[in-house]
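Reading a protein record of the kind used here takes only a little practice. The record below shows the convention in full.

——
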Amino acid sequence: MPLRVVVAGATGVVGRTLLPLLRERGHHVTALVRHAGRLDGTAPVDDVAVADLLDPAGLSRELRRAAPDVVIDQTSGFGKADQDEGLRRTAQLRERGAKHLVDAAVEVGARRIIGQSMTAAYRPHGHDVLDEESPLWTDAPGCWGSAVRALAAMEEALLTCPDIEGVALRYGALYGPNTHYAPGGAIHERVCGSELPLVYDGVGLTSFTHVDDAAGAVLEMLTNGEPGTYNVVDNEPAESTEWLPAYARMAGGPAPVSLTLDQAKAQLDWLTVHQLTEQRGATNFRLRETMGWRPTWPSWREGFANLFGLWAG
């Protein structure tokens, strides 16, 4: 059954992937953007709504005009900003913007809202691979702690409102076209510039999510699945000592240098050290078992190879 769908963050890496898929399924698609010029005339949408998530009055006006059945929030504050600035912008969008979007969606009678969260926000715990019941690291230090607290506030707004079905999709590290892992992206440049090292005895785990799989999970949740949180990750959480050298080889970059933990703490920012040494991966068991969802790219190995034109499958 065709739905009226509003996509906030339509110009982001997941939003751009999602728009044509929604149209292919016959849905009426409205792209919600902050500036009118962000989408050109070739974008696969039926309508464009211009509003800022931090402007509740303007947001309500545009959603009232769009009259959505489902609202999808794929907004991010990163863009071309540096890491700390991106975290600050994203925290603001998550904490205030998401609440405004929930309120506006309820006001116009939408029945479901789907928000973007992340598995990297889980509190590290031993060597475990974490599920949706694991706590978020809301007392983490610095900008990262602020970002996780904002994420928790966003999820609370989505999941506790009695007047709408809220779904929070927790993505892993997003990779694919136009992401930080693509040629020219921030991770690609750091790896090719020997700026992302291996750390002796580092046990950091990363769960990866291809943008195709993120968009596919959103499609599945439009009409199916119970409200709640779902990890959207591939089947193979990867230690940094495993995925980083493999990525460097496929990208044609130098082999990563190796540092001790003390050297890494002296040379790198706190968040990078955390990701390389103590971050935990996540399981996609809930989404697989309750929805029958399967990732198009079940392993980052295949996904990275495809990203660099090396995948023959």
